[in-house]
Amino acid sequence: MLLLRILSRCPLWLLHGLGSLVGGLSWLLSPTYRARSRENLALAGLPQRLSWRAAVQAGRMLMELPSLWMRSSTEPLGDTVRWEGAELIAQSTPDRGLLLLTPHLGCFEVAAQAYAERFAASHGDITVLYRPADEPWMREMVENSRQREGVQTAPASLSGVRQMLRALRKGETVGLLPDQVPPEGQGAWATFFNKPAYTMTLAAKLVQQTNAQLLLIWADRLPWGRGYVVRVRPGPHIAADSSPESAARTINQAMESLILEAPEQYLWGYNRYKSPRSAPQS
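-> C-alpha cells emitted (282 positions)
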C-alpha cells in the first residue's frame, strides 16, 4: 500500500517510463503472454511487431493506475485530459439515458472520471460496471477510488444490472467494457476479429429495455506522459427486436473499429476467446 501511495504522487511521464519497463519485462518473461498476444493479433490481421508495443502500453496502463485510484477527489484531471467528439455527449438528450461503451483500449479508467468532471452536472452521474478484486485490501482500495463525485459503481451481479437499469431510466449514464468475457448464460457467440467469442449481451439488453442512446468512447494515452485524449464516436444502432447473437455481433464490430484506431493500446494479451464452463459452442 505504501508503494502505491508513493507511485500515486509520481508524475505521469515517470509512471509511463516505469510502465514501459514493466510491460517489456512481462513480454520477455512470459511465453504464454507472448503467444496469446501474437495469436490474437494474427486473428485481427495485424503485424506481429505490435505484440511488443502492446505489452509496453499494458505496462503503462498498470503503472498509471495508482495515480488514478488514489487521486484526491478534490483534485481535477485538468489539462491531463483533452476531448475529441465531446459534442456527441453534449448533444445527447439528458433525460433519455446514455450508454458509453469502450473496449480494453487505452486508459479506460480515466474515461469515467473525465466524463464525471465534464458532464455529470448536465447529464447525470455515470454508473460503471466492475468486478470486485479477490484480495480484500485491493477490493476496498479500488471501490473507494471509483466512488467519486459523479461516478457510481455497480458490481457485476444481478443487483448491479438493476442499478444500471435504474440509472438509465433516470436519464443518467452507464459505462461498460463489452469485450469482457461474461459469465455462463450471460452471453452469446459472435465473431470478434474473425473468430467466435463468447460476448456480453448486457449492453444490447440495456439499450433495448430503456431506449438509451449509445456512444463509443476511449481514452487515447499520449506519448511521453502528456496525458490523454478522450475520443467519442457514434454508436451502432441496436434494433429493439435484434436477437442476442445479432446485437452481440454489431457491438463486436463497433469495438473492432475503435481498436483499429490505435491497436498498440489494446490488451491483446487478454484471453478474449476463453469459453465459460458449460457454455455451448457456437
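The mean pLDDT is 90.
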